Each structure stands twice: as structure tokens, then as C-alpha cells.
């Protein structure tokens, strides 16, 4: 630093190779015999702009395959200082979120995109672009995220099977609830022998783990030791119970024709048959009449007990004298019931309608009143005959009844109609 006079009225202070500590406020004072004057100015030393280096990729992104909830860290290392760092996934620019952050260290040249707990949706093609005045560099990698394997839990019965007694002829329902991950495979056994589904036996498994075994119309042979076995990759568990089939408790009841007489027509010389089915306890006594006169049974007129309350009246070689109102009265100590039907005799050859002629629906086996213990399975059945096949609809108190989790509706081509309601309660009556 050296002051210098460069003219009669000009003075100069020269500072060669100015440095930071030369930065200050400078003052010059001029004086003579008449007085003095001064002037001052501030000196700011500006640093030269740093030299910008071209970016070089030292370590690029790597393809990764990881499992859900593992951390995902994508990083690059570069030489040079980038002015901007942009991250992309599947072509869309990314921004920081609660789940995702970007980090960078100019000293080490490491820049990263980090996701502490990756999800399946984080899979994709990632790219980073780093830029400065000298240009851009980029790196790309593919990330795969596999779904985490669910935690395995061996089967556990939350509610096991319980011993049960069921009256013969009633329906048996066994119910339990099991849990396990993955969902266990279910097998039912009776006395150590695997059970298979059939017309009488149905097995159900609900999403909440409830398991149900239902056996319709139980017989003594259904008595035994029942078990359900639940198995998955984590283990196996079983629950069993004892089932006793006991004699049904029979209440006294008045007779009721569940299959009443149906009118019939036959040509002379042919045979005609009347079928009935009657319920009641004690077993009802039947009396048959034609136009109020008792029918006499002989070789031509026969009455057969078909068991289970079914009776068949057959008249062979019919003639005009057999025509009339056929009636059947069933009675016991509780009451009685009666049904009637007309028998028409056609003279000469058979004049019946062809078999393929349509006819209105008629009940071969109608519904009848039932008493069902609460929480048991209710099953009722009827048979309908019609040509063409009848459209069947069930109602309860006049409202349509639809199939559901507890309601099962079954129809067969021969006209059998069955309604089954599991876990029957008073609300279903």
C-alpha cells in the first residue's frame, strides 16, 4: 500500500493484490498554511467467482429389490457441485413428503432419496438429474417392492365344539370358531373317519372363522365323537365333542292330513289309487267311506300301510258302482281330521288327457305346522306337481323370503321344495 502524487493536484493510494483485510474506509487529508480539507471512501474487496467444475458421476443409482416396510435408499456420488438436484419416479418429479426425504452433502458429493418404510406402491423406475452451468448428469434404477409375507399364527379355537344331545329325526348343528394366519384348512371327522358333504350333511366356513356342520334328520347311526381339524403352515389344532341321538319327545297332537286325498278318474276295468299321509299322536285310526257308507276291503279293494303315516287305498277293476265321494277320517284321543275326493268312472275306453297336456300346479306333499326348538336348524319340505314346471316362491307372513347366510332354498326337477333356516329363533316364527 503506497500513496503517490500523480499530478499537481492529484494524489493516489495504490493497493496491489487487494485482500480481505484491505477492506475498510479510507480517508485523505490535504492541508497548507491556509487550512485543510479531507475526503473518504469505503473499499469493498470482491472475491472472484469460483471456478465451476463439470459434474462427473462417481457412483450411480443401483437397481433394488426389497420387501414391504424395509427402508429404500437411492443415492449417487458426484464430483463437482450441482446447482440443482431433481428426483423422478416413472417420469413424474418427486417432492419431499412425510414418508420421503432428500439429502445432499456437497463436501462428499453424496445425494440421496430416502423412504424409511417402503410400500408396494413405491416400486417403479427412479431417476436423478444433477445440473450446474457446465451441464447435466443423470442416473436411473428400477426398484421392486414385494408384499410382506403375513405373520403366521397357528390355528386357535376361540369357541370350541360342545357336547350335544339331539332328538332322533331332528337336525344337528355343530358350531365353533377358529382363527389362524393364513386361514386354516378345515376337515371334519366322525369317530376318526373323515366326513364328506352329502344331501344330509353340509359344512360351512365363514370369513370370521365360524365353522358349522349340519346334519338333517338325525338317526341313531349319527351318534358318536365329532371333531374338526384346522391346519395351516404354522400348525394344527382340533376340537371335538360328543353327539348323542336320543329318543324324540312326542307331544300328543290331533290328526292332520299332510297329504290329503286327491280326486281321481279311471276308465271302467282299470285300477285307481288314493294316497294319504296323516300325522298325529297317538297314531290315528282311519275310517274310509264312499258317499258316507263304510268301504269294505276285499281282494278288489285293498288298504296298505306304507309306514310313517302313509296309507294307500287301491280299487282294482273299477266299475260305475265305485264312483262317488271317497272320504277318510283320522281320529285319536286328541281330535280328528277329514279329507275327501271325488272318484269318477269313465265308461268304455280310456279317455284321459295325453301325458304331455299342461296342467296347473298341485301339491303332492303340502307344508304342515312345525314346532322347532330355539337355536336349532329348521327344515321344511313340500312337493309340487305341475306342467310346465311351476315357479316357486317362499313367503313369511306375506313377505318374500330370500336365500341368505342362514336361509337355504332348494328346488329339484321332481318338484321337491326345501327351506332350511339355521339357528332358528322366535323372530323366525
TrEMBL record:
SMART domains: IG (SM00409), IGc2 (SM00408). Residues 50-144, 155-244, 255-344, 361-429 form the Ig-like domain. Keywords: Cytoplasm, Disulfide bond, Immunoglobulin domain, Repeat. GO terms for cellular component: sarcomere. It is found in: Cytoplasm, Myofibril, Sarcomere. Belongs to the protein kinase superfamily. CAMK Ser/Thr protein kinase family. This is Ig-like domain-containing protein. It comes from Plectus sambesii. The lineage of its organism: Eukaryota, Metazoa, Ecdysozoa, Nematoda, Chromadorea.
